[in-house]
Amino acid sequence: MTQVFFDIMAATVVIGALGVVLVRNVVYAALFLIMSLMGVAGVYLLLSVEFLALVQVLIYGGAVTVLVLFALMLTRVPELKEKLDGDQRPFAAVAALVLLGAFAAMIDQTKWPRDIHQVTVVPFNTIGQALFNQWAVPFEIASGVLLVALVGAIVISMQEEGER
Fold first, then answer.
1. Cβ-count burial 33-63 (b if 16+ within 10 Å, e if not)
2. Which label site among 41, 56, 83, 139 has the fewest CB atoms less than 10 Å from its CB?
């Protein structure tokens, strides 16, 4: 039964990733990205790592996708009439297939270890204490950098609207 759920989640991830690459509309690509990231969260749930699944949904599925959409909407690149990829698609497809074959051969030739070590489970309060004690300063610096980037994007967007 677990194999069936894993196959469903793997198909969700692959279909979502293909949708991100192949769809021309940015909003649809973001929805496919969310679909792919939710599939990864499903794989985390199958591995009984509920905390990582929750972080995957909240941070990547929500915040990062909204940030990407926000950045794309603020850039307002005008639609180009001509195709940008032109004759490159067949060459890109061949290169992708060659890389896929090379990766498949490497995976097939790798000697994977057979012994599986039991992973120790860390309680949530230990993670929280480490985040707010040991990693408090880097966490606050990262949040400050994101805040400055957000304010800068808003200022740039307002200046562009004022020029029109």
1. bbbbbbbbbbbbbeeebeeebeebbeebbee
2. 83
The residue among 36 and 156 whose pLDDT is bigger is: 36
CATH 3.30.1330.10 fits 1-77, yes or no: no
SS (H, E, C) 134-153: HCHHHHHHHHHHHHHHHHHH
Q: How confident is the model at residue 103 (pLDDT cuts 50, 70, 90)?
A: very high
pLDDT at 92: 86
- Interatomic CA distance for residues 26 and 149, integer angstroms: 21
pTM, two decimals, is 0.62
